[in-house]
Write a structure and sequence with these properties.
alpha/beta; Rossmann fold; 2 domains; five-stranded mixed β-sheet; 14 helices; globular; binds nicotinamide-adenine-dinucleotide
């Protein structure tokens, strides 16, 4: 097999991946060079260095970022990540993917992302709150319900969003629920938001299996990398639909049972503070994250972080379908290897778009002070995901390209056409 390495910028960094994907997608579009160059770059980037008083009394300085990649279609939207690996290039990549994801889903948003370089597991609850509130006050000048609307991502959750919402509201002097999405229900959160990304992954997986003529849930064995918000809700929704989840993992490693894992028990186990490495049941084998991705299964759902399927393991993936719950889990060279092996890959900007879609519902509800029930949320989410899936498949057939290139090209073209319609100011 020959692999076109000219696609790859040096290293498998997330931003290299995002740019290589962008270049591939724009190569099938006929867009003016100036527009391509404009869309390839982030609009604005902020770096914040800020102090937090730790429980020991010591003051530590943390670094945080917020990148607004593009705001042509509306205010920018994207999560906030807490991880020791956060860096500006990663945030740039994640912000760019948010632009394409929102455009693909036809949401009135641009793309953004933020993060703080911190391991949230090393913080006490008080330190986490102090860090979040200080970061939120640093963000005040650059966010608003009409400028940029944060949400949870890796290492953050609804509690983090509650602190950001409260800090912003205290600063401006009135309550602003629409400043963030993914909040708790009792302060303007939406029904279904917590589960939305994971459920969306499974809704999209169903469509992909139907199109391949392989929709037989009880015969399909799933492996899911990551058992946080996205991975756990994908697993729970999958077993509800009759699928077998045979492998899952967290940062410390994975568990595998070819006869199917007890996902509800594992959910309760991990939510009470345990790592999967501590789970001990007859028939359950412990595996590393590396091994997990190469185990026998029908569908592989990476739902942890970027750069997991690479040139090193893409040749050994056993699944016939990959549904990207995480953002950027597959490098461009791995994409090529998977294509050459006829493994179908449903890209992140489509597969995990359930989260931002319900975030959009939450923002709309907050702005209107009028709330929908869960049945309505799920009905609208399913309708929007099905339509997006159809759009991508039709575009891929029309252009004779893979699903990632189709999804990105469709989305990029939407932002490009809006840019051209608006014209460049002045
Ligand atoms: P999370 O923090 O809730 O969970 C992350 C999971 O990944 C945890 O189980 C963690 O232990 C595991 N993990 C961390 N590092 C790992 C490593 N090196 N190897 C294997 N596992 C590791 O995060 P999340 O919100 O579930 O996000 C997961 C992915 O989904 C990220 O790529 C995120 O950008 C993407 N995503 C999240 C949402 C959302 O609504 N939360 C929406 C769209 C996309």
């Amino acid at each position: 097999m020959t692999v076109n390495t000219t696609l790859i910028a040096p290293g498998a960094e997330a931003y290299d991946t995002a740019l290589a994907q962008f270049d591939r997608a724009t190569s099938i579009l006929k867009l003016p060079t100036g527009v391509i160059e404009f869309l390839r770059l982030p609009k604005r980037e902020y770096t914040f260095n800020f102090p937090v008083q730790m429980d020991s009394g010591e003051t530590k300085i943390f670094t945080g970022y917020r990148v607004h990649h593009n705001i042509v279609l509306g205010p920018s939207k994207g999560g906030i990540r807490y991880s020791p690996h956060v860096n500006l290039n990663e945030v740039r990549a994640l912000a760019m993917w948010m632009t394409w994801k929102c455009a693909l889903m036809q949401l009135p948003y641009g793309g953004a992302k933020g993060g703080v370089v911190v391991d949230p597991h090393q913080l006490s609850a008080r330190e986490n709150e102090m860090l979040t509130r200080r970061f939120a006050s640093e963000l005040v000048p650059v966010i608003s319900p009409h400028i940029d609307i944060p949400a949870p991502d890796m290492g953050t959750n609804s509690k983090t969003m509650a602190w950001i919402m409260d800090t912003y509201s205290m600063t401006v002097g009135y309550s602003v629920p629409a400043i963030v999405t993914g909040k708790p229900l009792n302060i303007g959160g939406s029904e279904g938001r917590e589960e939305a990304t994971g459920r969306g992954v499974i809704i999209i997986m169903d469509e992909a299996l139907k199109r391949k003529g392989l929709y037989e849930p009880e015969k399909s064995r799933l492996i899911i990398q990551g058992f946080g918000n996205v991975g756990s809700h994908a697993a729970l929704h999958a077993i509800e639909k009759g699928y077998q989840v045979v492998g899952i993992s967290d940062v410390g490693g994975g568990v595998y049972d070819p006869n199917g894992l007890d996902i509800k028990e594992l959910y309760t186990f991990t939510r009470s503070g345990h790592m999967l490495a501590d789970y001990d049941q007859p028939g359950v084998e412990h595996v590393s994250n590396k091994e997990l991705l190469e185990l026998d299964c029908d569908v592989l759902i990476p739902a942890a972080l970027e750069g997991q399927i690479t040139e090193r393991n893409a040749g050994r993936v056993k699944a016939h379908l990959i549904v990207e719950g995480a953002n950027g889990p597959t490098t461009p060279i791995a994409d090529e290897i998977l294509r050459s092996r006829n493994i179908t890959l449903v890209p992140d900007i489509l597969a995990n778009a359930g989260g931002v879609t319900v975030s959009y519902f939450e923002w709309v509800q907050d702005l209107q002070f009028f709330f929908w029930d869960e049945v309505e949320i799920m009905r609208q989410l399913t309708r929007i995901l099905h339509k997006a899936y159809d759009r991508v498949v039709r575009f891929a057939e029309e252009k004779d390209v893979d699903l990632r290139t189709a999804a990105q090209a469709y989305a990029i073209d939407r932002v490009a056409q809006a840019t051209i319609t608006r014209g460049f100011y002045p």
